[in-house]
Amino acid sequence: MSAVLLTAIPQTGLAGLKENWRKDLLSGFLVFLIALPLCLGISMASGFPPSAGIITAIIGGVLVSRINGSFMTVNGPAAGLIVVVLGAVQELGEGDAMAGYRYALAAIVVASVIQILLGLFKAGRLSSFFPASVVHGMLAAIGIIIMAKQIHVMLGVAPEKGSSLLSTIAQIPHSLVNLNPDIAIIGFTGLAILIIWSVIKNPTLKMVPAPLLVVLSGIALARYFDLEHQHMYLFLPDAHFLPHHEETVGPAFLVAISENFMSSFYFPDFSKIATLEFWEAVVAISLVGSLESLLSAIAVDKLDPYKRHSKLDRDLTAVGVGNLVAGMIGGLPMIAEIVRSSANVNNGAKTQWANFFHGAFMLAFVVLFPRLIHSIPLAALASLLVYTGFRLASPKSFAEVMGIGKEQLFMFVVTIIGVLATDLLIGVALGILTKFAIHMLRGIRPNNLFKIYYTVEHQAPDTTVINLVGAAIFSNFLKLKTELATLDQGKTVVFQLNNTFLLDHTVMEFLHSFQHDYEAQGGHCVLIGMEFHNAYSEHPLAARRMKPDHMSRRKSDQRGI
Questions:
Q1: Which of 292, 506, 511, 559 has a CA positioned 20 to 30 A from the CA of residue 428?
Q2: Any idea where the domains of the chain sit in the sequence?
Q3: Which pLDDT tens digit goes with each residue over 244-274?
Q4: pLDDT tens, residue by residue, 50-86
Q5: What is the CATH number of domain 446-558?
Q6: How far is 161 from 394, CA to CA, in rounded Å?
Q7: Can you tell me the distance from the alpha carbon of 180 to that of 155, in angstroms, rounded to the nearest whole number?
Q8: Nearest in space to 52 (alpha carbons), one of 101, 107, 99, 106
Q9: How far apart are the first and last CA of the chain?
Q10: pTM given for the model
């Protein structure tokens, strides 16, 4: 059985290209159709020129796919970085969009060097230090911010300049009342397509990517409303009696891109490298980009039908190299993007050549058909981002976190509020501090917060027993996680949890994942002593604490009674 599975695993490199080029080429083309509108929308939402996102996708496909450590991921710009990059452009540019763009490019270059160093020093495993609920809270907050900003674009109305985030949210009802009818029709049509496509089950229809339909319908409506020329809008032409209404439509509502792709390149400006704002941008870009990329690679590994495992440190280094090149010539930062990577798996891709083909198609399209890109309305791209933002912050996300435990929901909400009220880095820090406070309230000693206590015994030639003592939590589990990675495959691993005072959700998730992966490689993994713990919710991976009666017996045994 295992021999058959082994021979079925696709080859890599040129041999993999020769073996699987048909399926990888098809998947790369389908992913390109999804990626093109998203790259344009994410780029403009980030305060960058539309071409910046395409530059990044080309580099992510053509370059990074050749040097990374994963098999099915697709690299490119992601919605999760919109808030960070836009903040850098606005903060560093101080009102000058072009200057802010070039300063942000410099921050991307420095952040990419940090990413390369993190990969070379094997810091990929540090992603486990960030609790799952805090990461989900960060992404949900980003989703709310994306929706708050892009709803106005979808309606064809600009919020007041210099508005704070809360003010931008508060102005949504005003934009709804004073929407531009032509533009809003395009935006709501795109949103309707995305919602309908999400509930359709027909596999034949599902083969057509929803973002492609959004773009095609947007182009058709833009032509019908004649957005190529400045004029009074065609739909409800008598609605000019509405106060403060945008009465005209024109090319300003279409993607502005140069017909000469070579003119899209811009170079970074490092003149603000000595400022605090610059380094805040660097830390935010490197932290969020690295974290999202690592988490996406781990998630895509679980979707891979061949159960291959990414080399996370090599992947992080490769993304850093890609960001270095992108930042030097005017591109956005990239990550291993989960939506495009999931589509890649579902399309039947076999190797990283699918990512390469996606980048190659992107390059060919932007060189050959720039006028077609210019005909895409901004409202259609905004509808894609509003939908993406909603998926990041949907009620389902809140329900899933609540199902794990009330304390997880509390950290999730604290992180969201922290990001919305301050900024992304402070919000994440508040979420982590909240988790530390919860652990302290549950009885964890300060010396156990960052240090784990365990023993490893090799009881037989093929049996290893790991005895965990005290608390095993997100902030102290890294040492054991590293040691577990060195264990031989195909043996028996026993986790003795009788003496474990507390296991948090992050550790429970890791133990479950380790057990699944280890047994998939032909080994056997057992968790002993779970019956001596009370779970904080009915979720199978909820945090759990030792039962009081078992704790009393342990103390009695230690006293020799």
A1: 511
A2: 9-385, 399-441, 446-558
A3: 444 678 888 999 988 888 889 999 999 999 9
A4: 999 999 999 999 999 999 999 999 999 999 899 999 9
A5: 3.30.750.24
A6: 28
A7: 6
A8: 101
A9: 53
A10: 0.88
